[in-house]
Amino acid sequence: MGVGAAALALLLAACGTAAQADQENSVAQQNSESAATAKPKPKASVQPTPVPSVKASWSPASGDKTIYLTFDDGPGPYTQKVLDVLKDNDVKATFFIIGKMIRTREADLQRVYDDGHATGDHTWDHADLSRMNAVQIDRQLNKAAVAIGPKMGPCMRPPYGALDAEARKLAVSYGMTPVLWTRDTNDWNKASQTQIYNVLMGAKPGDVILMHDGGGDRANTVAALRDALPKLKDKGYSFASVPVCVSHTTQ
Ligand SMILES: [Zn+2]
After folding, report:
1. Residue 233's CB: how many other CB atoms inside 10 A?
2. How far is the centre of ligand 1, averaged over its atoms, from the C-alpha of 211 (Å)?
3. What is the pLDDT of residues 101-116, one digit of tens each?
4. In terms of Cα–Cα distance, which of 208, 119, 132 is closest to 170?
5. Between the chain's N and C termini, which has fewer beta carbons within 10 Å?
6. Are strands 183-184 and 177-178 parallel, antiparallel or unpaired?
7. Are 148 and 204 in a shared domain?
8. Mean pLDDT of all residues in 176-200
9. What angle do CA 112, 95, 220 make, to 5 degrees?
């Protein structure tokens, strides 16, 4: 019986790793729903293929005077407000998009592109990729990439910054360079407008700054940005989209 075999397979899995290889084969032959709920999760039935031009990571070159603003978790109710501030200051940034958010916010995403910003993949529903198997990682990244569309830049940012070796290898195999950050405004953690402003004003050349246009109330982010951007420009800083996120199709 299929059910008996599945139960046995789960029992074996629960007993440890000795029977794991067989267990994975067994589970992989079941339908995807039961495979997704089995523990441990089936390993790679998605085989990474290296893309030579894609880097395993990106960080700014030393001596780079540019600041790279990045906005995660949108599009959301504050995306247009962030875009307004960026436009008023003639600043280009990078938006790491959650795929499922686009269903109700296509106009926001369109304006991100129309205003000349870059985008990257932030998974379908803000998944912790380090806790997922290859099939799940594949679904998270590629379902989001399809939703974000052909103008998406060839880069990704793992939610929570959580990227293990397997997820990194898969992302690169899909042509997405992982991009983390060097400075965190903590706007995701209820930082005040002043706190966010102070982090922004402390930026150093080459910083990749973590901010959010989605995922919650971002009024402090918008207000801090409006105060800080003109002053940072006065200090001689310039701003750009993360270079590895600049899509060929937007140039
Ligand atoms: Zn995020």
Report:
1. 15
2. 9
3. 999 999 999 999 999 9
4. 132
5. C
6. unpaired
7. yes
8. 97
9. 95
Residue 95: inside a domain:
yes
**Cα 155 to ligand 1 centre (Å):** 14
Cα–Cα distances in Å, from 222 out to 60, 93, 166, 226? 25, 14, 35, 6
Structural domain boundaries enclosing 136: 66-250
CA of 126 to the centre of ligand 1 (A): 6
Gap between the Cα atoms of 144 and 121, Å rounded: 7
Cα dihedral value 49, 177, 100, 76, nearest 10: 180
DSSP structural state of residue 60 = P
User: How far is the centre of ligand 1, averaged over its atoms, from the C-alpha of 27 (Å)?
Assistant: 31
Give the chain's domain count.
2
List active site positions.
72, 212
Give the span between the Cα atoms of 111 and 75, in whole angstroms.
10
